[in-house]
Amino acid sequence: MFKKIISKGNYLNITLVVLSLALTSFAVESDKDQEIITRVAANIFAKDHYRQHLLDDEMSEQLFYEYFKTLDPAHLYFTQEDIKVFEKYRLELDNMLLDGDVTFAYEVYNYLLKRVEDCCKDAEVSLKNKLDFNSDEYYTIDRSKEKWPKDLREQQELWRLKIKNDILVFRLMEKAEKEAAEEEKQKNSRDDSRKGAKEPVAKWNKGTPDERVIKRLSNNTRYLKENDSMDVLELYLTALANVYDPHSAYMSPKTVEDFNIQMKLSLVGIGATLTLEDGYTKIINIVPGGPADLDGRLKPEDRIIAVTQEDAETVDVIDMPLGKVVNMIRGRKGTVVRLTILKGDKGVGAIPEVISIKRDTVKLTEQEAKGEIRRIKMDDGTEKKVGVLTLPSFYFDFEGAASGLENFKSSTNDVRKILGDFNKEKVDGLLLDMRSNGGGSLFEAISLTGLFIRQGPVVQVRTPGGAVEVKNDPDRNICYDGPMVVLVNRLSASAAEIFAGAIQDYGRGIIIGDTHTHGKGTVQTICDLDNFLRHYGMKNPSGSIRITTAKFYRINGESTQNNGVRPDIIFPSFTDCMEIGEEYLDHALPWDTINPVKFESFADLKKRIPALSEKSSNRRLSETGFKILSTNIERFSKMKEMKAISLNEEKRWELYKEEKKISEQQFALMRLETSNPEDISKDDKDAEKDAMAKALKKKKQPDLYLDEAAKILCDYIGIIPAKDKPEAAAATTSK
Predict the structure, then answer these.
(1) Which CATH superfamily is domain 266-358 in?
(2) Kind of pairing, strands 383-390 and 429-433?
(3) Fewer CB within 10 A of the end CB, N or C, for the chain?
């Protein structure tokens, strides 16, 4: 039968036949080891997690819905009627977990496989019927906050719209690729030197849009079938962990082993933190010093929809498990991976584009602290000498320190050297750039703060039992006592927030940036279950647990959790329009306060902030760069508000062309603002775009935020009365 179907070239039908045959029941035998792992893990989360919340009916009900959400985050496969089938478990999961009973987890997973089969049949029906791309229908792209379909009839309609959108995306991609190829052809015909200048177009697997969509469904089903019982247990226990907080998890032995192998083999990638959201692999953060950071084109909120290995065919990764996507992106150093992405700043109607990145290890030198001196000219003609210090992370060479090396590598040691150079040059002020600093060593956050204060507390750490430990500056030395500002954004997290919060509390410097930092104010500990289960006589590995065990608080008593650190002066920002930060994570621990501790304030900067903020705002209103930025942010905000997208092909194409035109206009305006006219031919707009693209890739584009922060620092220097200068400030006691 298969040969007959293949000979007719009926790719669509053969895929559906194989798909249907593959979906058998997910059988699970009783496993004593898994019972033990479940009981121990449940007890650890209940007794050792920071929340100190025992497993009860409340937690059982939350886990009930969390597990369905884990298996079906886009709310596509289950219906509300399906969930009611398992209602008997809703308030029993707590008792079952403590008994090591995971029947619920496997029953629901088996049910998922059945529903996947049903939905694939719905897709087949939709594809057999002629889809109308001229009608005015809409599909909700982000379904994470939508309700599950009420019943099968509502689900079938949902899948009809989903399949229609998926096919439309492929149709638009083909159209955009053809348009791009034609534009490239025209450019090359005018200038032979431009041949090969454009990024290569992804070589998609052969097949129509219909066939591509079915292959995606087939692959997704195969991934689900490949999971074994331990994979399902990992999903279930991680759902339990996530009910306590989003940073806790259970890692199966296979996950732990894969991680260890990757570390030992020194596999490299692009240097980006990824997550899975609504079937898309989304960029959370770009690692400083990594290939993606140095390339400069990949940004947070971008979604990866396909991956191409060197010259191989492109693989669609929508709905692919995150681990498999990560493994595809990783590879040998020096090899090229091509990512087909949907740009986050182009909204739900984005047409895919291709980015090639050469795999490499994250260059540690790029993560190190760096300093430079800039001379800033002010409106009144005066000039200030500003030391700009960039700190991408808080790092510490534990091996070097343990072996007694005098100059072991650490962020504090490196910053101390840079500050010494700045002091020799007699800088007027310091600008510390901590944007996208994801944190690192807690000790480094404390010792780095100590470079700017003489002594005192830096952060408070609260344990599950309520005990609070105050972490103090380890010495009385101060390396820099002059005016300073600290630049942050929503990607500044953890240790970076501890530092920024302490600087703000002490009145030691002005914090500038997004509306607030990330809000990661918790501490996680890795627990190797093998250490707990040895006395049970278990011979097989048991995996590990990542569990939140403490919470950070500022010296003023406020938590950095959820709310982060709120800057004194706020800049307009793209990241403020994105769902970046602890506040957007389900079950995130709340912001709260504890008692403040006594500390000696340097100065009261709050009375200086309004005048500095107003002056900066007026300056930004007249600067072309910030005008363009504001326009782009406004456009991006409107796009983010679009929850549903048209399934009318003509309207979608017009939207794409409109967005493309606006992007090119903004691109040209930015180039006119920042380039030397002599560098570019006035008669060749294409050359202008290419020159700008190269400048962007080399990261030579001006930094509006850094430049304005430097001007604010200069304004601050100009209004500091002698009595308020740090070295002359009278110490005051705060409670």
Answers:
(1) PDZ domain (2.30.42.10)
(2) parallel
(3) N
